[in-house]
Amino acid sequence: MKKAKLDDNIDEKIEEKLYSDDNIGVTVFKCQNCGGETIFEPNSQKMKCLYCGSMFDINNLSVAKERDLDELLKSGNVWDETEVYQCKTCGAKEILSKQEVSVKCSFCGTNNIIKTDEIPGIKPQGVTPFKLDKIKANEIAIKWARKKLYAPRNFKKSVKAENIYGIYNPVFTFDSQTITWYRGVLGKNYVKYRVVNGKRVAHTETRYFNINGSQDMLFDDLIVQSSTSIPSEIIKSIEPFPTKNAVAYKTEFLRGYSATTYNKSGEECWNECKIAMKERIERAILKRYDYDIKVSLSIDTKYLNEQYKFILVPIYVGHYNYKEKLYNFYVNGYNGRIGGKTPVSKLKVSFTVLLVLLLIAGVIFMLMYF
Ligand SMILES: [Zn+2]
Ligand SMILES: [Zn+2]
């Protein structure tokens, strides 16, 4: 019963998005049978007509290809078939394909959103399409909330997930071959015996040694988030996203969905990626030696054949509604992993604290009297 209701709401919203006044007379992505609007449908990975339900293949699908990094750093590849909307309540920025009008903010659920003059930025070359639909995301959200230990009982009994929207989150993936020259000083401890007052006494000494050499490493599809709209610890909790299977971007994938704008540039993301690579290179170098103390290690890395992909990964954002307050949750649109917040029952937390205190008191009592 509830499921059906949610589904109706979603369809209504999509219709609102597609059939507001701004869209009249625009003919894009029409159904070949009835002329209705089509949206991307995750279960079939096809375009579906909102009216007659006809399904259409997305033509000319291909795998997203890497591009040379030079291209990114001088980039002028603008994503022009889209527009940026901003929420006046929470400040979130969303990208929608032209002719679509978002009625509600995906992040805070208010309908206080306005179109901006901002340019959406660079066009993604790949997308990991949604594999789960909204009904499934809703099921996952409700199951998860019911299992929450400290959530109030009333909340769990009639848990409601609202405003579920599919949002594509932008990420960069980088590939690079690396050659690193290094030098440093490491120390290895050993035990030495001395005779003090006629007794053999052990003590530890350290032998220091110089290291130098080169280390080659290959990095493939290192992911760097380029948007901070969704907290990074949430993203971490719902990873992975299969960026390797990303398909070449087509506007069709955005129909019925939105994307978040990126707020870290390609260059910033590449620098972040270099830090991550540097850490892994250092670890690989140190693994080659038997040592206890790292005194110093300096490395000089050359990056070769650097390539990148700018791709969109699928996330459902929704809200739990409890006592007039909204709590955000996020579902990985590919594998269904979920993260976010639920209300916390003060009573349940207090009860647990009390129980722990009683246990401690019990242990002390036992220690004292038995
Ligand atoms: Zn149709
Ligand atoms: Zn908002």
Description:
Strands 4, 5, 6, 7, 8, 9, 10, 11, 12, 13, 14 and 15 form a 12-stranded mixed β-sheet that branches. A 3-stranded antiparallel β-sheet has the order 1-2-3, with no helix packed on it. The protein has one domain (2-369). Helix 1 (2-18) packs across helix 3 (134-147). Helices cover 25% and strands 37% of the residues. The protein has 7 helices and 15 strands. The protein starts with a helix and ends with a helix. Residues 1-28 have low confidence and may be disordered. It is α+β, with helices and mostly antiparallel strands. The radius of gyration is 28 Å and the shape is flat. It has helices at 2-18, 69-74, 134-147, 153-157, 232-238, 266-286, 346-369, and strands at 38-41, 46-49, 55-56, 67-68, 82-87, 93-97, 113-115, 126-127, 161-196, 199-225, 247-248, 258-260, 293-322, 325-332, 338-340. The structure holds zinc ion (2 copies).
